[in-house]
Amino acid sequence: MKNEENKAFRTAFWLLGPLIFYELCTEASAWVCSLFGTQDALLVTGGALLALPFLYAAYRKKLQVDVRERDAGAGQVPRTDRRWCTDQPQRTGQWLCTGQAQCARSLRTGCFFAALAGMGACLVLNVLLQLLFPLSDGWDSTREAVYGTSIALQLLVTVVLAPLTEELLFRGLIRAELRTHMKPRTAALMGALLFGMYHGNISQGMYAFFLALCLELVCEWSSSLLPAVCMHAGANAASVCFTALMSGMSDAFSMRFALAAAAAGAILTTAALYKTNEVFSKS
């Protein structure tokens, strides 16, 4: 009975603890920003900078614990953890390439195609969701807070800090814990649902849910967190560029441009995901 209680406590800790900690860091950043009257986007910047080293340390610790538990269950000698790996692959070949140089090459190539897939997914999802569903008030306020700042701050928040912190949270810590209690597909759907709910409004939530499904695929193919970080960064970079381009267009032209961007995004996403899978399946 006590063992079951310990397992339940550990599950709650790994699923909720990192999220609560990140929110506390954001609230602390908000309090500091309120003292100086700075921009809303700095809330995310300060919260992410506070949380990032602790989240990475927790991620490394969880990797070590999970590897020790797997090895102990299999009767093997415990091994050191592998940096940025999200879970133990089922096939030995996923760990080992013919050499370290080839492994590094495959990872770089996979990250490149993952970033392209993220850019394409951003275009097609943004356009389709805006056509099918009205934007919520929460999305309008978020867009004003983030995209109303300088380009440099937008890129820092959306392309660097947000992908690192959110991938450590959701594809690193939360995904790993979900997969210890659920089948991989169920864990992927649940992780995507949590990622969507985390964004706090319908418009962003639906976008985040579908993007998270792509991120889950990339994690599954690569058994690494880096391609998911690159894909997330690519999606956010495309969002910054797309928002800047659309703001200066007339309504009629912007609709034609958006439809063309959605078609191009669908093709890019499909081709880039195919190449990402191909790269990691051969490594």
Description:
There is one protein chain. By secondary structure, the protein is mainly α. Helix content is 82%, strand content 0%. It contains nine helices and no strands. It has helices at residues 2-36, 41-74, 100-132, 137-147, 151-179, 184-198, 202-222, 226-247, 251-282. Helix 1 (2-36) packs antiparallel against helix 2 and helix 3 packs parallel to helix 8 (226-247). The radius of gyration is 20 Å and the shape is globular.
Concise summary:
The chain is mainly alpha-helical. Helix content is 82%, strand content 0%.
Classify the beta-strand content into a percent band. under 5%
**Main beta sheet: strand number and arrangement?**
none
Mean pLDDT: 81
Shape: globular
| Category from helices, strands and their pairing | mainly alpha
